[in-house]
Amino acid sequence: MTADPARSLESYNPFDPAVQEDPWDYYALLRREAPVFKDPHTGLYMVSSYPLVLQAVKDWETFSNRFAAAMAPSDGPKAFDEAALEPDEQIEQGILDQPLVPVDTMLTADPPVQKRYRSLVDKAFRLKRVKSLHPRIRELAEELLAAFEGDSRVELREQFAVPLPLGVIAEQLGVPREHLPVFKKWSDGFVAQLGGMASPEEQQKAAELIFEFQRYFAKIVVDRRAAPRDDIISDMVNAADERGQPLNMAESLSILQQLLVAGNETTASTISEGARLFAEHPDAWQAIREDPSRIPNAVEEILRLATPTANMWRVTTRDTELAGVAIPQGAMVMLRYAAADRDEEVFPDPDRFDIERANASEHLAFGHGIHFCIGAQLAKAELVNAFQLLSERLRSIRIPADAPPLEHTPNILLRGLKSLPLELDWA
Ligand code: HEM
């Protein structure tokens, strides 16, 4: 795709829903004309080419992840301090009378704070645990598919793509099946807040949801400390750092909230976008049906082309310069992962869906470096199992001719389809 030569960069407003829906010409123009660009509408600095996104990500001392504090300096999340480690007896018993102030943990912290949390949570997401989850992921996917088996039409996002990752993480965090709807409500609330487009009423609602979420999980954390089970939450709340210090309640709850936000919407969006791409490319569908060993690379190509974490924040800790553009201290920087993943210098013919692409896995959909997605292996396990099952059972999938045009949910950071109706031919 080539950008419209008649349009200037300034004529695009990145918050315009039409631009968010179809950002590809805008991204191409950004990469070509100003891979580091100060947007006149918002004052944000946007980084859009693959090498420059990488350069910024690697320089985490200058391009900091402490953006939550920068966005809400007065009452935003507090940075980790030693006092936060003091156990509060009531809280430790799972009783919360008032909301706990969220602690900046991984995504919204820098080393050494981020490193401490990261090493504790990494223990819960280790490869051995993820590998052991494969059969259960397959089982959950089969249960979801059984509910529409034989139907000629499905709403794939709602009936499969959303409930699969939600079911997996809910089970691993100790949420019983009957509580899934409220778990989903919390996840949606957090994502809306992260989207940066919430009204004051929505923010108030999100604050209430967070308190509800905290009260619910405080009890589970206490239970798992007393009686660990074979799940991610038990591994997490019982892990200790090098000083023998485990996570306290405020830290545990902040991390659980982050897992919920980071894991569900992104994976659901990737399953939906992947199914859309396969529906639009029947040859690719036949290719994975004939040889399922092509699925892992196809999943990488879906992540590259659809990059659900379209943008991520950074905030500069000092005056700096990137590709000759001066960026002052305290500037909000938007790393445009989705634009970088279509950089023609790295991915030839970047808009093409090519499941055999040799370097598809070099995409930045999971970020890079110290903040590289902790759930990447889990997400890939879900994606591979999902497409394995769907391609075994479905001869072909199509977007119905009478379906309205597909649309994405407006969100400045995450990109995901609102819905995905599909026509199905069963094998
Ligand atoms: C296809 C699915 C997913 C995508 C595309 C994705 C993408 C990302 C990206 C881009 C980052 C780095 C953010 C940055 O640069 O600041 C990240 C970090 C993170 N992700 Fe994921 N993610 C996915 C699934 C998951 C899952 C399933 C979980 C957990 C259940 C998860 C948990 C996290 C956490 C905790 C971080 C923060 C890590 C840190 O800052 O050290 N993600 N993810």
- Mean pLDDT across every amino acid position: 89
SSE pattern, N- to C-terminal: HHEEHEHHHHEHHHHHHHHEEEEHHEE
Helix content: 40-55%
Give me the Rg, rounded. 22 Å
Q: Would you identify the CATH architecture?
A: Orthogonal Bundle
Report the portion of residues in β strands: 5-15%
CATH superfamily: Cytochrome P450
H/I helix tally: 17
CATH C-level label: Mainly Alpha
Cα(first) to Cα(last) distance is 35 Å
- Count of all domains: 1
Spatial strand arrangement across the major sheet: 1-2-8-5-3
User: Strand pairing plus helix content: what structural class?
Assistant: alpha+beta
Low-confidence residue ranges: 73-87
CATH topological fold name: Cytochrome p450
What does this structure look like?
- There is one protein chain.
- This protein has 427 residues and is an alpha+beta fold.
- The chain contains 17 helices and 10 strands.
- The strands form 3 sheets. It has a 5-stranded mixed sheet, covered by helices on one side. A 3-stranded antiparallel sheet has the order 4-10-9.
- Strand 1 and strand 2 form a beta hairpin.
- Helix 13 crosses helix 15.
- Bound molecules: protoporphyrin IX containing FE (HEM).
- Residues 65, 106-107, 114, 118, 169, 258-259, 262-263, 266-267, 270, 308-309, 312, 337, 365-367, 371, 373-375, 378-379 line the site of protoporphyrin IX containing FE.
Summarize the structure.
This protein has helices at residues 17-21, 24-33, 50-58, 67-71, 89-92, 113-124, 127-146, 156-161, 163-172, 180-194, 200-226, 232-238, 249-280, 282-290, 295-306, 337-340, 376-393, and strands at residues 36-38, 45-47, 63-64, 153-155, 312-316, 320-322, 325-327, 332-335, 394-398, 421-426. It has 427 residues and is of the alpha+beta class. A hairpin with a 2-residue loop joins β6 and β7 (325-327).
